[in-house]
Amino acid sequence: PPGRKVLIVYAHQEPKSLNGSLKRVAVEELSKQGCSVTVSDLYAMQFEPRATRNDIVGCLHNSEEFNYGVETWEAYKRGGLSSDLIEEQKKVQEADLLIFQFPLYWFSMPAIMKGWMDRVLVQGFAHEFPNCYDSGLLKNKLALFSFTTGGSREMYAKGGISGDIRYLLWPMQHGIMHFCGVRVLAPHICFAPEYVSEEKRKEMLIAWAQRLKTLWKEEPINCSPEWYFK
Amino acid sequence: PPGRKVLIVYAHQEPKSLNGSLKRVAVEELSKQGCSVTVSDLYAMQFEPRATRNDIVGCLHNSEEFNYGVETWEAYKRGGLSSDLIEEQKKVQEADLLIFQFPLYWFSMPAIMKGWMDRVLVQGFAHEFPNCYDSGLLKNKLALFSFTTGGSREMYAKGGISGDIRYLLWPMQHGIMHFCGVRVLAPHICFAPEYVSEEKRKEMLIAWAQRLKTLWKEEPINCSPEWYFK
């Protein structure tokens, strides 16, 4: 609906890829609805995935023994995080909905996107014990993981060789988003687009656009072990 | 035992950290046994986690539309991967045992280590459909995930707020290592070392050294959904 803000965190090297098209479809459809859409195109930004001392501007809290979690927490509080992190945090802060668009790499997100999670969602900003899970600091936001797979739907079925696809959603949806208080919408999965016809890939894009039309009416999933492991 | 080769893939910024000590203990104990031990110290190497066109030397197989999986597969076959990847692959090829030593970041490994998985374990080298899982190309090797957590053992208990720690091992142990044919030893987990006494942390180091003494007699876990989700 008009006024809603969406951040798409996008990790694919090739604009012509299905991931690139899925991202474009989301920008178009959500903009048409009157949403304001921002894209963090991680490869294009050459986003830094490594969590290092460079993320803290100026002196360290403890220069004797470097602790990334403590240092970024302290730096956040005094406004001393590196500018690329501050920029991403602003985008997150403003967003009502976060869409993560990526190809599944090794049952998870590509390293460049994992680095976005590791570096952007610092303590003090996204969580601050005991403010985690339902009381995480990013509550009142929604997240949606939209990804493509190499393996087929059958491989990712319960009893399939790769196990139920929901098993691998646990660390991303529960461990990251729910931990920060974000409510999670059902994932959007395009299985094995490389092994289907151009026709089928077009249907995948249409299905995504279709889903986005009624996205704001969706209820978040119940992000507890039952949803994942039954 | 003498002659066995071990590769430790290590991801911590601070040598004085518990992860740094766990790595050192492993190097010492395994060397004492007569093993030959190699360490890939990812932060010290400034290891590149991003999967990009730079990983392919020379011309692309398809320069119209970049597909990382296809391009690295083709590059592997013609010896055209970037030199940092060839070097890591040599270390993996020679190793009988891979130890991954890291602090848990967001229910998973730090991005720099995920990038090692994304970039080193390319098709043709580590797997080549249908040679995956029990017939993956790295069969006859062992892997062990050794990590520290922020959360306590209670949080990671079945029914705990963060769920059974085994839930989050699925993508790493089954999705990556088992997929490549590697048999997986039980993980080694140090819970919440930042919140215990110096005394307790020393006990953690001793326990790790102790386990390593009889490591070669251990049976791999049965890496199937039952082990993870009961």
From TrEMBL, chains A, B:
SUPFAM superfamilies documented for this protein: Flavoproteins (SSF52218)
Chief location category: cytoplasm
Enzyme class, first EC level, given as a word: oxidoreductase
Listed Gene3D superfamilies: 3.40.50.360
Pfam families: Flavodoxin_2
UniProtKB keywords: Cytoplasm, FAD, Flavoprotein, Metal-binding, Oxidoreductase, Phosphoprotein, Zinc
GO molecular function terms noted in the UniProt entry: dihydronicotinamide riboside quinone reductase activity; metal ion binding; NAD(P)H dehydrogenase (quinone) activity
Gene Ontology CC terms: cytosol
EC number: 1.10.5.1
Segments crossing the lipid bilayer: none
Record has Oxidoreductase as a keyword: yes
Cofactor: FAD; Zn(2+)
Recorded catalytic activity of this chain's protein: 1-(beta-D-ribofuranosyl)-1,4-dihydronicotinamide + a quinone + H(+) = beta-nicotinamide D-riboside + a quinol
Subcellular localization: Cytoplasm
Limits of the Flavodoxin-like fold domain: 5-212
Domain of life according to the entry: Eukaryota
InterPro entries: Flavodoxin_fold (IPR003680), Flavoprotein-like_sf (IPR029039), NAD(P)H_dehydrogenase_qn (IPR051545)
Role: The enzyme apparently serves as a quinone reductase in connection with conjugation reactions of hydroquinones involved in detoxification pathways as well as in biosynthetic processes such as the vitamin K-dependent gamma-carboxylation of glutamate residues in prothrombin synthesis.
Oligomer status and interactors: Homodimer.
Membership in a protein family: Belongs to the NAD(P)H dehydrogenase (quinone) family.
Protein name: Ribosyldihydronicotinamide dehydrogenase [quinone]
Organism: Balaeniceps rex (Shoebill)
Taxonomic lineage from the root: Eukaryota, Metazoa, Chordata, Craniata, Vertebrata
Gene: Nqo2
